[in-house]
Design a protein that fits this description.
Elements (H helix, E strand, L loop, with lengths): L3 H10 L5 E5 L6 H9 L3 E7 H17 L4 E6 L8 H14 L1 E7 L1 H13 L5 E4 L12 E5 L2 E5 L6 E5 H5 L3 H12 L1 H13 L7 H8 L2 H4 L3 H6 L2 H21 L8 H11 L3 E2 L2 E2 L2 H19 L9 H7 L3 H11 L8 H9 L3 H25 L3 H11 L12 H13 L6 H8 L2 H9 L10
Parallel strand pairs: 1-8, 2-3, 2-4, 4-5, 5-8
Antiparallel strand pairs: 6-7, 9-10
């Protein structure tokens, strides 16, 4: 059900994962894969109440039948998230059992098991239960720690076993969240192109082509994903897995995450809820992705050939001024020093800003065409999200357009990674760009 040649090439680029198998009714392969990777080691199946029911118990029985010494650890809370306390819980359970973790669950279970395994100096096997995130195969785990959403560096699983029957039976909103997470790689890719030109984060060809060359294909059937079509679900999960492999190749989240994800991080750190519930990572990212598509639509209407570079350089603030701006913006935030720390890392002096802007000015016609080919227009992305059942408007996750606009200073400064908002800030058209999106006639027009 997967393109085996493509996966073989991807595994050759991946630094941590050695095995990726996906097909229907394939859970029985768990013991063989476990023995191939871990020999006669003990196993501990980690799941939550739901994922134990849909796949964990079956995997457990297969391991028992194969004479593998196995125990289980089930997180019993009705609702839980990727928080440090659960990493400790899983780590202690695996350590007490003296066992290798078999993670059976969605993105949260996988991230908890990934970081716990790293702390124990072990590899692990993951068995996904939903095509909901790209984190199954990614380098790093996104965990809330001391009030902040942080990405902890840790290896991806050595093996991934994905049963399409299980993935297709997952709640539709989880699959829609996975589609939105994969779609975020569209504007994320364009922002990587910007960072590359700015000399901040050069594009890594192996990581770029691994994902971007097939992304359109794997996003092409939102109707099939919404209806639970198994081929469409398999294509989506393959795309999410390739995204993780790209992150392994890059040893960072750069191939898969930029400003689109920072909206989600902001909402996580401010404990945003809608109808009493925290919103999924993918649903939050959907709104960040649409917002960035809207910004790129507005950006591509501009003519940087006429940019007054010297005027921009003259107006460019000092590092101390930028640090003070960050402290003012973040003064009441959960982490008041966050913006200060990140802007200190990514600040450029006037000479570098001049060269960055001159490069955009000289090559704007070509760059504009490249960005246009990379980024979906807002209407196309919004229609895809509507079809698949992902949020298509901030109100769908309980965020007003004014609240979304108010997040912009935070997301521009929240991470050292260069983005479109950084370019707009340097080029003196930040306010114009924001007005084009949130002002009269904009995609997210704020109605008075």
């Amino acid at each position: 059900m997967i393109a085996k040649e493509r996966i073989a090439k991807a595994l050759a680029v991946a630094t941590d994962t050695k095995v990726f198998e996906m097909d229907s009714n394939i859970l029985h392969r768990a013991p063989a894969i476990f023995k191939e990777q871990f020999g006669n080691a003990r196993a501990i199946v980690v799941a939550d109440k739901n994922t134990w029911r849909v796949a964990g118990e079956e995997v457990f029985k297969y391991l028992v039948d194969a004479k593998i010494e196995v125990s289980e650890h089930i997180i019993r809370q009705d609702e839980f998230h990727a928080e440090w306390c659960y990493v400790v819980e899983v780590e202690e359970a695996a350590k007490e059992a003296g066992a290798i973790i078999v993670a059976v669950g969605s993105g949260v279970i996988n991230d908890l098991c990934k970081l716990a395994s790293h702390h124990l100096g072990q590899q692990y096997l993951t068995i996904p239960t939903a095509a909901s995130v790209d984190g199954y195969s990614s380098f790093g785990a996104s965990i809330s720690y001391e009030g902040l959403k942080r990405t902890f560096e840790c290896p991806a699983p050595v093996a991934i076993l994905a049963d399409v029957e299980v993935l297709a039976a997952a709640p539709k909103e989880m699959t829609a969240a996975g589609y939105a997470d994969l779609a975020a790689k569209i504007p994320c890719g364009a922002e990587w192109m910007i960072a590359d030109i700015m000399g901040a984060e050069p594009i890594i060809p192996e990581a770029w082509h691994l994902l971007q060359d097939v992304l359109d294909e794997q996003l092409s059937n939102p109707d099939g994903v919404a209806s639970g079509d198994k081929r469409a679900i398999a294509a989506l999960f393959e795309g999410l897995t390739l995204s993780g492999f790209a992150m392994q190749a890059a040893r960072s989240s750069r191939p898969a995450s930029c400003t689109d994800h920072l909206f989600s991080h902001y909402l996580d750190m401010t404990h945003h809820t809608f109808n009493g519930k925290l919103q999924s990572h993918g649903f939050q990212v959907a709104i960040g992705t649409l917002t960035m598509c809207a910004f790129f639509d507005a950006f591509l209407e501009m003519d940087l050939c006429n940019l007054d570079v010297e005027r921009c350089v003259e107006a460019w603030p000092s590092l101390e001024e930028e640090q003070q701006r960050a402290l003012e913006i973040f003064k009441d935030f959960v982490s008041p020093q966050l913006g200060y720390k990140e802007i200190t890392t990514k600040y450029n002096d006037k000479d570098i800003v001049r060269e960055q802007l001159l490069t955009f000015k000289r090559h704007w016609p070509l760059l504009k065409e490249q960005y246009r080919k990379q980024v979906y227009p807002f209407e196309k992305m919004q229609e895809c999200f509507r079809k698949v059942g992902a949020p298509a408007d901030p109100a769908d996750i309980g965020v007003t357009r004014q609240q979304l606009k108010d997040m912009l200073p935070f997301v521009q400064l929240m991470r050292w990674r260069m983005n479109l908002l950084d370019l707009a800030h340097r080029g003196g058209f930040y306010d114009e760009l924001v007005e084009k999106v949130f002002g009269k006639g904009g995609r997210w027009e704020i109605l008075k």
